[in-house]
UniProtKB/TrEMBL annotation:
One family name in Pfam for this protein: ABC_tran
Protein name per its UniProtKB record: Lipoprotein-releasing system ATP-binding protein
Record-level Gene Ontology MF annotations: ATP binding; ATP hydrolysis activity; transmembrane transporter activity
CDD domains cross-referenced by the UniProt entry: ABC_MJ0796_LolCDE_FtsE (cd03255)
InterPro entries reported in the protein's UniProt record: AAA+_ATPase, ABC_transporter-like_ATP-bd, ABC_transporter-like_CS, ABC_transpr_LolD-like, MacB-like_ATP-bd, P-loop_NTPase
Keyword RNA-binding: no
Length: 236
C-alpha cells in the first residue's frame, strides 16, 4: 500500500530525514514512534503528500506521488487519504454531520450521497444522535470521533493520524485506539499513526522506531524472525 525509498528531507541546514526505506502493507495498523525531533511528523506529512521530500520516492496506493502536479496531488489527497490530527480541526459553525461531509463536497459528490455516507459513519461511530450538534456542544471524545468519520468520508485507502489521542482522557483514548482496529476490520483501510502513547504502540500490528532521521527498529523484522526460525530449526 505504501512504499518509501531513500526519502530525505532537510529544513535549511537541518537534515530531518536521512534516507528512509519502508514498505507498509494493505490493512496494517502501523505506529511510528521515537523521541521528539526524530522525524516522525515530517515522514507522516510526506506520506500524506502535505510536504515533498528532497530526494527519494513515495508510492501510495500504486501511485508515485512525486510525479503529480499540485492540482493532481490535491485530488489524490482528497480521494485516497484520510487525516486525523491531535486536535480535531472541526469547523465550529458547522454541525457534526456537515463537518463529516466536507471531503465529499470537495470531491464534487452529490449532497444526497454525501449525507447518506456521513450518517452511516456517524451511526457506526455511535454518534447518530449527535449529528446535528455543533462542535461546542460535543465532548472531546465525540469531537475526535467526528474527525475520524470525516477522515473516512471518501473511503480512503490510507488513514494517517498524528498524535490522535494526545488530547483525550484515558477512557476516550482507549475507545479511540480500539476504534482504529474496528475500522480496519470493517473498511479495510491501512492506518499509519504517529504517537508517543506506548499503550497504542503496543496494540498496533507493527511499530516503527525512528531516531535521528533513520529507522532504528521495525518490529516487522521481529515478526519475520519469529516466523522463519522454526522452519530453519526443522531444516537443521
Amino acid at each position: 500500500m505504501i512504499t518509501i525509498k531513500s526519502i530525505t528531507k532537510s529544513f535549511g541546514s537541518l537534515q530531518v530525514l536521512k534516507g528512509i526505506d519502508l514498505q507498509i502493507n494493505k490493512g496494517e495498523v502501523v505506529s511510528i514512534v521515537g523521541p521528539s525531533g526524530a522525524g516522525k511528523t515530517t515522514l507522516l506529512q510526506i506520506i500524506g503528500t502535505l510536504d515533498r521530500p528532497d530526494g527519494g520516492e513515495v508510492v501510495v496506493d500504486g501511485i508515485e506521488v512525486g510525479s503529480l502536479s499540485s492540482k493532481k496531488l490535491s485530488d489524490f489527497r482528497n480521494q485516497h487519504l484520510g487525516f486525523i490530527f491531535q486536535f480535531h480541526q472541526l469547523l465550529p459553525e458547522f454541525t457534526a454531520l456537515e463537518n463529516v461531509m466536507i471531503p465529499a463536497y470537495i470531491a464534487g459528490k452529490k449532497k444526497s450521497e454525501a449525507m447518506q455516507r456521513a450518517n452511516e459513519l456517524l451511526d457506526f461511530l455511535g454518534l447518530a444522535d449527535r449529528a446535528n450538534h455543533k462542535p461546542a456542544e460535543l465532548s472531546g471524545g465525540e469531537k475526535q470521533r467526528v474527525a475520524v468519520a470525516r477522515a473516512l468520508m471518501n473511503e480512503p485507502a490510507v488513514v494517517l493520524a498524528d498524535e490522535p489521542s494526545g488530547s483525550l482522557d484515558s477512557k476516550n483514548k482507549a475507545e479511540l485506539h480500539q476504534l482504529f482496529f474496528d475500522l480496519r476490520d470493517k473498511f479495510g483501510q491501512t492506518f499509519v499513526i504517529v504517537t508517543h502513547d506506548e499503550e497504542l504502540a503496543k496494540l498496533t500490528d507493527r511499530t516503527i522506531h525512528l531516531r535521528d532521521g533513520l529507522v532504528e527498529h521495525d518490529s516487522a523484522a521481529d515478526n519475520l524472525t519469529q516466523t522463519v526460525l522454526p522452519s530453519q530449526d526443522v531444516a537443521e
